[in-house]
Amino acid sequence: MAQSFKRSPKPTLGVEWEVGVIDPVTRDLVPRAVELIDLVNDRHSEIHFEREFLQNTVELVTGIHDSVPSAVAELHDDLEALRVGANELGLKLWASGSHPFSDFRKQPVSAKMTYAEIINRTQYWGQQMLIWGIHAHVGVSHEDRVWPIINALMTKYPHLLAPSASSPGWDGIDTGYASNRTMLYQQLPTAGMPYQFGSWQEWLNFEHDQATSGVTNHTGSMHFDIRPAAKWGTIEIRVSDATSNLRELSALVALAHCLVVYYDRKIDRGEDLPTLQPWHVAENKWRAARYGMEALVITSRDTEERWITQELDELIDELMPVAHDLDCAPELALIPEISERAAGYSRQRRLFQLEGDWKPVIDKTAAEMWELRPER
């Protein structure tokens, strides 16, 4: 049932990062996440790991922070502890939007009732969720601001997805998509784009309908790409693929943090927040998933278009004053670096085309976790 929104007096930040556990020989996913979590938590009880949908996944979860550097520093320390445990168990850590060749039929789901219910309800489509993402929670002061900000954030959907896109491979093939994860995840009946609710009351009415019809009894919650998290008083942004490394993660979390605060300040000034027609939002989502950093995106209600790289360059400049206030200017400034290096999907695709095999791609992606470190 609907929860009251726990208002956050400050734009606090929390981050969740889904990381896969792989066999260093086969490079396939292995269902040993619980064993690894228990080993590390026996030594570091203060670290917050979550057992995720699949038994091959560890979710690193930060506490509540005021800034991106603080949250990323916590993730860095947690990751180091996890690496020690993985080494002892003969495992490797790896992160990406999807695994390029693992067979979903051989990957068991975690022993959690809501997960079992999702599989029971969705069958074939739900079983395919070999996908990983980044979730950023940003505190919001009042529930009446939540949906105007979410609707505005949806106009920047490709800006949040394209730099993170890192899931070109699936079932042994190159799908041609930058983020195949995005296309897979929206198969779930409670996932995908949120409806453009006009008020908090409309959201409460929707939650009531979902509970009455039994939808949320099966799934635990709605899995929208961006959603309110009433329990924490946050907006939860779930658009981005999981990055292979903390350096790029820090840039994407900075972008998310700055965007929420940027739109929140517009409300303070009495300014209208931007929206796009739902069909334009849907088209932009698809274009970013398909083309990544090469996407041409729709930027206005008049159907004007621009290249996402142009959009990102100007957006970073526009957000930089907010970034300075939030102490994440160096992290936000890493967004153009992703384009210069080539985004994760492009790096993976290039190596696969060169080698004709996904295993070197897994090796290189796993190595990036330690090669591409945060700015500070």
Protein model, in words:
It catalyses: L-cysteine + L-glutamate + ATP = gamma-L-glutamyl-L-cysteine + ADP + phosphate + H(+). GO terms for molecular function: ATP binding; glutamate-cysteine ligase activity. It is an enzyme of class 6 (ligase). Its EC number is 6.3.2.2. By secondary structure, the protein is an alpha+beta fold. It has one domain: Creatine Kinase, Chain A, domain 2. The chain contains 16 helices and 13 strands. Strands 1, 2, 3, 4, 5, 10 and 11 form a 7-stranded antiparallel β-sheet that branches. A two-stranded antiparallel ribbon has the order 6-7. A two-stranded parallel sheet has the order 8-9. A hairpin with a 4-residue loop joins strand 10 and strand 11.
Order of helices and strands: EHEEHEHHEHHEEHEHHEEEHHEEHHHHH
Number of helices: 16
Mean of residue pLDDT values: 94
General shape: globular
Main sheet: strands, sense, barrel: 7 strands, antiparallel
User: In which range does the helix fraction lie?
Assistant: 40-55%
Q: What proportion strand?
A: 5-15%
CATH architectural category: 2-Layer Sandwich
Low-confidence runs: none
Judged by helices, strands and strand pairing, the structural class is alpha+beta
Spatial gap, N to C terminus: 42 Å
**Oligomer kind:** single chain
Enter the CATH topology name.
Answer: Creatine Kinase, Chain A, domain 2
CATH class annotation? Alpha Beta
Count of the separate structural domains: 1
Rg over CA atoms: 19 Å
DSSP strand tally: 13
GO molecular function: ATP binding; glutamate-cysteine ligase activity
Family: Belongs to the glutamate--cysteine ligase type 2 family. YbdK subfamily.
Function: ATP-dependent carboxylate-amine ligase which exhibits weak glutamate--cysteine ligase activity.
EC number: 6.3.2.2
